[in-house]
Amino acid sequence: MDKVAVIEDDRPTSNQLCGWIRATRPHMQIDQWFDRDSAEAALARERYDLVVLDIELGRERHAGVAIINTINKLHQGTPVLVVSAMPAAIYRSIMKALDAWDYLQKTTFEEAEFVETFLDILRTARQRQADAPPVPADELCLDPLWQRSPTWRGQRINLPLTAQRILATLVQRKGEVVSYEELFEVVKSGRNRDNVRKHVSSIREAFRDVDPGFDAVENVPMRGFRWSR
Predict the structure, then answer these.
(1) Strand stretches in the chain, DSSP E
(2) Contact indicator for 203, 186 with CB cutoff of 8 Å
(3) Which residues are recorded with the post-translational modification 4-aspartylphosphate (predicted)?
(4) pLDDT digits (tens, 9 = 90+) for 8-54
């Protein structure tokens, strides 16, 4: 059975969205959450097939952003449909940069548009799962354009873009020492050894959040770093 989370602090709006979903998918399990804390607790327990999410929850203006980050960390790839009163012209691109799948602005759409968008996301997610090749448990997956966080053992690694570029450079040259000077080429600002070491430290910490035994980034004193996996 598909499971959907509707995270919306306004109960009439939440009930309306749930009603629309039930009308088109009567057997779907729908969990309603009305604040960030309960939503994040549920996300830690459950794996949802789709999350419908408001940005503002109670007094927290950007609670939805924090929840998307939680989703990305815990369940990389879970589709998120943002439904918010924030102006779409501004927030659609922001939400997509955070890996939300689509954005609907409240008061500007009807039931038919919501249902069409909801079902399209659900079908696309299912197709992606069906088409995805099996990933070995210890394999690192990197986006070829370095625009999305990598995954390690199937779990998302949260890294800023510069750290992703450093990681990609090390992996491309696996087994070889990559010098500080070569790593300066992917660091847009702060091109010095201390800054590179800070980025590498961030990489190690991010991997160890999901794999405490991670040791694939090797420090080569006075020279640089090596991906030794």
Answers:
(1) 3-7, 29-33, 50-53, 80-84, 102-105, 140-141, 151-152, 155-156, 178-179, 217-220, 224-227
(2) no
(3) 54
(4) 999 999 999 999 999 999 999 999 999 999 999 999 888 899 999 99
Q: Which residue has the tokens 């943002």?
A: 82
Q: What does the CA dihedral 211, 216, 221, 224 come to, rounded to 10 degrees?
A: -110
Residues of the chain with CATH 3.40.50.2300: 3-131
Share above pLDDT 70 across residues of the chain, in percent, rounded to a whole number: 92
Helices (H) and strands (E) in the chain, counts: 8, 11
CB-CB contact of 65 with 55 (8 Å) = yes
Single out the residue of 68, 58, 12 nearest to residue 35, CA to CA: 58
Entry pTM:
0.60
Domain 140-227, CATH class in plain words: mainly alpha
- At 105 the three-state DSSP class reads strand
Residue count of the chain, please give it. 229
pLDDT tens digits along 199-228: 999 999 999 988 898 999 999 998 999 998
Delimit the CATH 1.10.10.10 region(s) of the chain. 140-227
Mean pLDDT, to the nearest integer, of 48-73?
90
Q: What percent of the chain has pLDDT over 90?
A: 53
User: Look-up: residue for tokens 């399209």?
Assistant: 120
